[in-house]
Amino acid sequence: MKSIEHYKYREITINAYWSTFDLVTKKRLDKYYYKDTFLWDLLGYSKIEIERKFPKLTRSIRETAYFAAMDYATRIFPGWQAETRYYFNTGNKDFKLAAEYIKDNNWVMASEIWEKYATNIDKEIASRACYNLAFVNEITGNLDLAVKWAQKSDKIKTKARTRNYIAILKQRKKQLQKLQKQINQ
Known about the structure:
The chain is an alpha+beta fold. The chain folds into two domains: 6-76, no CATH class; 93-184, Alpha Horseshoe (Serine Threonine Protein Phosphatase 5, Tetratricopeptide repeat). Helix content is 57%, strand content 19%. It has seven helices and two strands. The protein has a two-stranded antiparallel sheet. Strand 1 (6-22) and strand 2 form a beta hairpin. Helix 3 packs antiparallel against helix 4. The relative contact order is 0.08.
């Protein structure tokens, strides 16, 4: 018995140009060019089954338009971006206790513990405490204080990860300032 494979293929290329204007000031606020190619294909032994399962042309066009619009929407609307942050939970028993407070979302108690060690004679412990205080202040929304604590940590004991964290905090501050400016316009 001879079996025949059937294959159906569709390719749609989209070129979209987005231009956003402020009608009051008659100024262009943004322009963006989007280009992409979308593919649909299906392989099977029954031509009728393939025709039944393959999306209609109108559906393919709707999907193409949807993804083009979503791409631009991520550009103009604020959204959440997942970030990973680390903090020190080792060093002594109190650091482990503070880590338990963090698990319970008790930032105040963890901060109180780390503040006691921010001026410790052991530079490693003091640096870790300051780094963790930067972390807490970032999480609680005080980026200015987070930068100060991170800089203090780096001054006590210079580490590449701390310098990187300072850069991340400063970039985050710039992004929030930009967002605030956009909201206030």
